[in-house]
């Protein structure tokens, strides 16, 4: 038997895949993007909201701005129906800080939501500010808060 | 043609033609492999999306251009309701800018939209990437040192796995994004081509091995990789400037007609920058003109006529575009005031006829005096003497006001130590930059941080001092620039271009959203050429195998410390960039030390040490490019979904 050139074989494979899943055949392989929320609900077993870890500290390595350090939230989900999402919302209204981290879930387990730290303008006044950390389950059918903690954060001068 | 022999001969002729064309473009197989490899590499971190706000305006202009008109009537891409920043209102119509850059992308828009009728858009990109990968594999297998069978088997297996993984994880890419994809693809091609030209330039003046190191270095060890998929003008201008230098070098090595052809080519390349960005073109052409006329063996009437013709040909597309837009060939849309965000702009997206939409989308001046010509936006066929005189006056005025002022202010800025420090050496938090626009994140790098291999230039003063001493003792006859060697003449052009293209932008840098001081981007390949001209660097690069191994090891180290910093220290975006910058500066210092050591005491510092000293900054730059693509800057959607999956597994900020 003649040994075929592997480059030609793969080239044929590529063309074949493109043709089979192309507009002419109508077969779509597009996987539903993991970030697309749908209907459904989730039962949350436990949550960890480390509010004291919400602090304002100076930037390092030459980034001379202050950062609001946003703590990681962990959520243990017992069961899931459909495609709901977990929403972790951190807000410090008087600083204009509002960060939401979301994660679409399809099965139970422990999820970690780590929002990015938020830099503050140099005109931010030193003092204390009220912050809230909220965990919610959302879908097109339902929306409910599973945990909420208030916290006072200090902006050093 | 119908008989067997005839078709055999013609097939052979076609093959010879193809080989000759390939040789003219790529030089040799090594050049082709470099080009293909860098396309594959740049594609890895390609995200289909808008990194910089100005791209919305130019991408919409590309949509218009692909539809056969210069003015924008459809806002396919928009950030906000209403107008997009960067559009210019002229006679009641909205125009974009950088038409030369957009023109390159137009055939790609057509090609991709055509192909998308056969293949789904998101799979199309994976398919094209796989095609590139296979071409690379089959070219690699032809090298004498490669095991042909094994290379083809392993290589195509890797391509197949990556392709199938991309198909399995594919997410949707709407068809209307294809114009943006084409726009990015044109920039990617320009970036890879700049690396190819770098290979050919250095290979021509030295040897192919050093050329390969230089070409690959431009792709992985400079910010060229950062801007390869971001459709700004900088990559294209950098390519055209470097290509003009290449043509100049060829003209100095050849004689007779070939030399004159190359010389004209240099002017065509530099002159065509006018179609992309007239301001930068002005300086590129002026510097080329001065250096060329000063160093040419002959400046006879014939030569001058050819140069003049070459320049006229090069600026024709710009002049025609400007004339169609404003009626004045010397007035690019950029000099007209940019429309602000409040300008009334109500695109009739569902209008079947773009021509019909014109009246409604142009806001203030409903019916313009230029008549109803929508195709091409031409404002008449005749070009009266008055218009020519106006054009000449505008051109002279523009050159004097923009060019003169930029040069004067640039020289003044040389006095500003803080500005120079933050532009060239260390960014940190730069006092004059408005970080607010980018969420107060310190994402701007200085040139040395973005390209730490520039640490090697510490050897230049030493080399310059030696050269001046030698010149001082030389006889006056040898000082004539016309008798200098082709390499020296090319050096002169590169230095002049680098200095001028830097100085004219000095008053405007540092600035927000320049990331790697992108206004100085055309200088990057020139600077790399300068690094390659240092004898100590050449000695290090000659240890190519060691250089490659050290680079891979250093890349592993760089990724470990940078990712380790992100997770271990809990770095925020601005901190992570500055942390990376400090590592890059450390690598630059090591590089500077070994290159300076080798230059001053060649007996004490071996070439192998220099190779390691070059690998370190190269690896940290590659790590910056990779992390910029996978961790630091998240926008749009990855061109290859398998990369998205990998990026998702990496630690986030």
Task: Write the topology of this structure.
The complex is a heterodimer of chains A (157) and B (653).
Chain A lengths: L5 H15 L19 E10 L5 E4 L7 E4 L3 E10 L2 E8 L4 E8 L4 E5 L4 E3 L6 E12 L4 E13 L2
Antiparallel strand pairs in A: 1-4, 2-3, 3-8, 4-7, 5-6, 5-9, 9-10
Chain B lengths: L3 H23 L2 H16 L2 E2 L5 H13 L21 E3 L2 E3 L3 H17 L5 H20 L7 H21 L9 H28 L2 H13 L12 H21 L2 H16 L6 H18 L5 H26 L27 H8 L23 H29 L3 H9 L21 H4 L8 H15 L12 H18 L19 H10 L2 H8 L1 H25 L4 H28 L6 H26 L4 E2 L2 H9 L4
Number of strands of chain B: 4
- Going across the biggest sheet of chain B, name each strand in turn: 1-4
Number of distinct helices of chain A: 1
User: In the CATH scheme, what's the topology name of chain A?
Assistant: Immunoglobulin-like
Write down the oligomeric state. Answer: heterodimer
Strand order of the largest sheet of chain A: 6-5-9-10
**Structural shape of chain A:** elongated
Radius of gyration of chain A: 23 Å
Instruction: Compute the average pLDDT of chain A.
Output: 91
- The figure for the number of domains of chain A is 1
Order of helices and strands of chain A: HEEEEEEEEEE
- Model regions low in confidence, pLDDT < 50 over at least 5 residues of chain B: 341-382
Helix content of chain B: 55-70%
Hey, roughly how much beta strand do the residues of chain A contain? over 45%
- Rg of chain B: 25 Å
The main sheet of chain B comes to: 2 strands, antiparallel
The H-and-E topology of chain B, N to C, reads as HHEHEEHHHHHHHHHHHHHHHHHHHHEH
Could you say which overall geometry of chain B the principal axes of the C-alpha atoms support? globular
Largest sheet of chain A: 4 strands, antiparallel
Question: What is this entry, summarized?
Answer:
The complex is a heterodimer of chains A (157) and B (653). By secondary structure, chain A is mainly beta.
Pick out its properties.
heterodimer, A: 157 residues, mainly beta, Immunoglobulin-like, four-stranded antiparallel beta sheet, elongated, B: two-stranded antiparallel sheet
